[in-house]
Every structure is written in C-alpha cells, then in structure tokens.
Description:
- By secondary structure, the protein is an alpha+beta fold.
- The protein has helices spanning 3-7, 34-48, 74-80, 89-102, 151-163, 180-201, 224-238, 242-246, 251-277, 280-283, 307-319, 325-331, 352-365, and strands spanning 13-15, 22-24, 51-58, 66-69, 105-112, 118-124, 135-138, 142-144, 147-148, 165-171, 211-220, 291-298, 344-345, 350-351.
Amino acid sequence: MGIYQNIVKIFRGRIDKKTQRVSWQNATTNFTSNFILNIQHRIANEISKSYFNHVEYTVNSNGYDFSRILTGTDIDEVLNWAPKEHYNTTEFWNDVVVKMLNNKYVHLKPIFDTKGSFISLIIVGDEEYKLDETVNLVSPFYSDNGTSLLDNILTSVYEKLATNKTRAFLKINGSFDQGKEAFKQKVNQTLETFQEVGEFNGIGVLDAKTDIFELNNSYSVITQEEMDFIKSEILSGYGISEKVLLGTATEEENTAFRANTIAVLLEQLERELTYKLISSYKRIRREGKQTYQRIVVNTNVMKFASLDQLIKFSQANTNTPIAQQNEERGFYGLAPIEGGDEFFVNLNSTTAKNVTKTEETDGESN
C-alpha cells in the first residue's frame, strides 16, 4: 500500500482531474487513516475516564454555595453505570465522542419509564426526533454540516502527495563515484537546462549521453520533513501533540491537551445533560429556594497522579487545607476513618476547629 493510502483515505470526496483538488459532498467525511483514528480514540478514551456527578447546591448567603454529590440517583445510575444499549458505559461514551469527531451534530435521547424515572440514554440516528427532547451535541471540529475543519488539511495532504511523484529516471553523463553533492549538482544543472530550453517552444532537448526512462506507474515520494509537517497539521487540527498521542507528554503538555480539546467537549456535555435531564424547578436557583442541581463532570485528576505528586499535595494540604483527611486518604486508596471528616493544618497537624479554640483561649489568658 502506498504512502497516500497509509496516511489518509478520503471517503466520498470527488477529485477534480485538472486541479487535483477535492470537492466535498454534503455528507460525513470518513477518515480511515490509522493515524487519525488513533487521535480520535485517544480523545474518546480520555473523555470516557470522566465521571458525571449529580450535584445539589445549598444556597449560602455569606459566600460560595455548598454542594454535595447525590450518588445513587437515576441520573448517576444511567450516566455512570448503565450500558445504554452498548457493552458497557465506557463503550457508550467512547462511541459518542467518536461520532462527534466525525459528524457536525450528535443527538442522544433520554428514556424514561412510566413513573418518570430516567432509565437509559441512546444515540439516535436519522429517525425522527425533537430537539427539545434530545441532548444535542455540536462538534467543535466541523464548520458546517458537511465540512470538517480538517478537510482543508487533508486536501493539502493529498495535493502534497499527488505532486511529489517519481515518473521517470534520468540517465546523465555522471557517476556516483564523484561524490553525492557533486552528482546532485550535475543532475540539477541538467534538469534546469531542460526546463530553460523547453520554455522557448515546449520542445526539450537531450544530448547524446543523456537518456530518460519513463515509468509505467508513478510512485509517491515525500521527505521526512514533509511527513512531519503533515502530521503536525493533523495533530494541531485536533489540539493534540504527538507526545500526548504516544503517552510521553509532560504534565504541561497534558494540561494543554485537556484545556484545548477535552474541556471543550466536557463543558458541552455538562450543560446539555443538566438542561435536558434535570427539571427546571430543580435546576434554577430561585429567590427563597434553598437548593438547586447540576450535572458536573469530575475528571478525577488525583486518580492519575504519581505517588510523589500525592505526597507533595499532602504536604501542601496541611499548610493550606483544601481537602479533608478522609478525602486525602481516598487519593491513596485508603478507607475513611472516624474523625477524618475534618480539615487538618500545621501545628503538627491538628484540626482547624482546634486552632480556633486555641486562639480564643490564648486571647482570654492575655
């Protein structure tokens, strides 16, 4: 299989024989290149690691609203555990993301039982559906219904590969023995002479010691520099670096990937799922109402932190606590303990409550 086929196949694209440009039909573009499929599944796998928290907020007039996660609700069950007409929930979310990478719109239909409980979520195709009854996702990788932002990149790839073809061999009065650079110089001079002569009347001239051997087939040729450029263009279209794809990225590179690509998809899921799965009464924060609900994606960054990173977090957490002791134990895979639902600070690690009591006692003694 040639280089062109290995890099990308363009499905349902019509190639203009004169310009060699691809005119796209108003249909889905299917990229069958292993390279592009690897990128898509890397993005999909990252999304499928996420956990959808059903969160209830309690209004706090003195600051930020308090929140608690509602585990075990029908929303929690369907979004995180139910297979949703797939082998499991991971495959479902993987399928949703891959479809978003290959289609402008993706529609998910919530299924409710006779009692109004949320029991499933399915991907709908061309059948009839109402936009106000489905979770409607819009791909950030498409400029319109039939044109991907990568179409121009792939057209450029095709043109690069279509023009760089070996069609013939030129036999010149020279030898490899004279050295690589000297031989290349001789070839270039010969070709330049042919072009200059041909510009006059379109007729080329060969001397008695030069022959051209035309090939029956043309063969694609591309340099490593051009190959790297093509890969770079495709990767940048998805907002991902090659190191992220290979699993050798630094924390900064992974953070950029999540911010540029993953966060865009997750934020859209949060908003649409919240709007379509939670009733307006439960969702809207009204005057006099004490609680309201949202669906919030928890990517659980601590799950993928190294032991060294966890230890550094624990050390910092005793100076400026943001996690309770039992939450911190959970990062290490340890079970919660009695009395662990407290924030600990330095004084060789006591509770924040005791620090306040100590300060009050000292003030009274003075």
